[in-house]
Amino acid sequence: MSRINVVEYTSATPEQQALFDAIQQQLGTVPNFLKVFANSPVALRAFLGLYGVAGGGSLDELDRERIALALAQQNGCQYCVSAHTAIARKTGLSAEEMAAARAGDSSDPKSAAVLQFARSLMEKHGDVSALEVAAVRSAGLSDAQIVEIITHVALNFLTNILGKSSQVEIDFPKVQL
């Protein structure tokens, strides 16, 4: 049972219902973690806005999902591991690639560098070394992509702490940490 109210459509305000309608139209469902976010329509709009904009960057969609899986595992968020396993499967990551991502690795050297950098950002609270920045840059990532990695780390940390602190019910096929 969620520690924070899960806003249901039937009891939502008109503003919350409008947000749910937009989410439903885009995703085909309104995941429980977004129903928790809906307690504050401002917070939900902020998350959806940043998430939508960040998804339009130059960082590969598969690497964005790899980051989500790596950080969900690193931060111990079962909701996020479960959700991003389902999403990653739809984006084309194999079971082996998802397992590697959860361990912070990839068979693709560039993706492995992305994950090492993302996990280091999380572990060191952003205080990465110049060598770590140089390593991700030498793997072929631009400064724009490095900033996008940082953005996706922040977004995933936000969802990880929301999932963990709320103990929201997992509404995806459950995946164990």
Automatic annotation (TrEMBL):
Family matches, as Pfam families: CMD
GO MF term set: peroxidase activity
Coiled coil: none
Family annotation (InterPro entries): AhpD-like, AhpD_core, CMD-like, Uncharacterised_peroxidase-rel
Gene3D superfamilies attached to this UniProt entry: AhpD-like
Protein name per its UniProtKB record: Peroxidase-related enzyme
Residue ranges constituting the Carboxymuconolactone decarboxylase-like domain according to the UniProt record: 43-117
This protein's UniProt keywords: Oxidoreductase, Peroxidase
